[in-house]
Amino acid sequence: MTDPQISASLFADQARAALDAAIDANKEAVTVAARLFADSVAADGVIHAFGTGHSQATALEISGRAGGLIPTNRIGLGDLVLRGGEDRSVLADPLLERRPGLAARLYELSTPRPQDLFVIISNSGVNNSIVDMAQLVKEKGHHLVAITSMEHTRSVPALHASGKRLADLADAVLDNGAPAGDALLPLPGGGHLCGVSTLTSSTLAQMVVADSVALLIAEGYDVPVYISANLPGGFERNATLEARYEGRLHRGGF
């Protein structure tokens, strides 16, 4: 007999409810974040997205994908190897993201300009590298959009020496509505199954992109947006638009 609390349909129902709740709860925050996106793009800025662990999925949703804004850059731990000169073995360190000075090095490698905007994604919002990056971004004068779970971040201790969480430092906070621990379906022996934060966070990110592009079009800008590189002429068109931001868009792996 299968567990009545674990099924594809039950997850779909709960995920749909979480998504609907996140959409309804974030309308004002989406508007604020979209204005920040639009202002950065209008000022020839680049939007930098940073997340560790599974939050990298939402950073990928923002940066360098079909239907998204071209002036976008994903900051990742792999930058230390791809552009920072470190040996690939450094990425095997499970405590890498806690390394002192990590955020400063990743910030430097992203080659930001004053008009650039940062989006930092973290379900818990308390990881040291996440808060370090958020503090640095604000110290450097950038606007910051956070995507986090307010339920999770309020349920755990602040780990950073400052006592701050990601949400405390952002100009706009998008609450992805994920439960503490992220997963939805209870397991018989304890714990939960099927995370939902990627679904809700990615949807909120796309909502912000939609509203920011609408603002830019209404204000008379020719908005640089990717089309699929797998459509005829897509790769060439994208490369032409990317050339406007030469040296500022980093499309690495990892």
TrEMBL record:
Domain of life of the source: Bacteria
What does the record give under GO molecular function?
Answer: carbohydrate derivative binding
List the GO biological process terms: carbohydrate derivative metabolic process
InterPro entries per record: RpiR-like_SIS, SIS_dom, SIS_dom_sf, SIS_GmhA/DiaA_subfam
In Pfam terms, one family for this protein is: SIS_2
Boundaries of every SIS domain copy: 37-226
Official protein name in the record: SIS domain-containing protein
Species of provenance: Streptomyces mesophilus
